[in-house]
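Changelog entry: the Lysosome-associated membrane glycoprotein 2 record was regenerated in this release. Current contents:
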Amino acid sequence: MSRSCRLHLPLLSRGSAFALLCLLLRTLEVDALNLTLNNSHNATCLRAQWQMNFTIEYETLNHGLKNVTIQVPSNASYSGSDCGTNDNISQIKVQFGSGFFWTVNFIRENSAYFIDVISFSYDTSDNNAFPDAKEKGKVSTTFEVNTIGVPLDEFFRCRSVMTVTERNVTHNYWDILVQAFIQNNTISTKEYLCDEDESIVSTTAVTTMPVPTAKPIPKERPYPGTYSVTSGGAVCLLATMGLQLNITKDEVTSLLNINPNTTDCHGECHKESATLRLNDSSNEYLEFLFAVKNGNRFYLKGVNVSLTFVNGSDFVAANNNLNCWDAPIGSSYMCNKEDTIAVSDTFQINTFDLRVQPFNVVEGKYSTAQECFADSDLNFLIPIAVGVALGFLIILVFISYIIGRKKSHTGYQSV
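Regenerated structure tokens:
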């Protein structure tokens, strides 16, 4: 069974830094950030939609290093965002959580606009986000971009994921749409694509016949590992699964099995979200993001991965708009048969012997499981139902044929 979500994830070069953050959109994104700024004359001067998250590495009390991924909620505050006073500088400010601040400055030069500086700060005194941080206090990172100019009469778009690491913070940006210094209160309909999206469009345009990708050589079934996350001394998240990563890079597809014996895990548990992060020698991290929907069900909302290959090249993928492993809160989700999560066009996860419970774990044990469709008995009824339906259809056709022959014969006798 395959579940897919659309997302292109090329590797980001620092040179494409403008996309780095220009910010925003895909119309159907649930958690997209959205901002429209008006100037002192109540005319629209900037419009932006985008998505972003941050992975922060910090030192723990036991002198180890730990990573935490910060998701930006859709209800973040934009207080302090400004069009500027001289129409040459504008700024977006985003505030969320306990002490998280993100800022981007746009500058105008002649007939183009640029991203000038990006800043991000956080406070390790926040015990929820950094429960075991050794150093407590505010940390700030700032870097300059100012590389690619976008014409004033165009909006910038970049659907691809863009990743930049500054000091100990990794920034991820995707589904970006932004237009700064809007002229005459008129939002442009002409788009300026980032290099990553442009390369995808160009490749599609010049290819007259798609070249099939070689199917990866089958690898042995991965051994399942059991992973747990604790909070307040009690297990709050349980997961058992065999994991096989299906990666396509430079038109070469390969399979990588996760070895639970060499894999460390940690994560976080909150009332409506939970995180499981796996680390081993071959993947910097593989992260599963769980969420609550409708107040009574949980599901796998996102997957983030960062890999470093033996040749030193990197692979990064993220998708925070999945809808997999759905089950009632208070139960677990189970799927013993092979299942596939399509994170992107270049990255899939094959799971085996899966069982997961990210909320309401009691005494460190799984609750009653909701089985996936592939495991359920109903799965065997499909070919039976198809066979029965086909049999009825054949009988119906046969009866119709007999009736038709009989009527035709009666007509001949009357003549």
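The radius of gyration is 27 Å.
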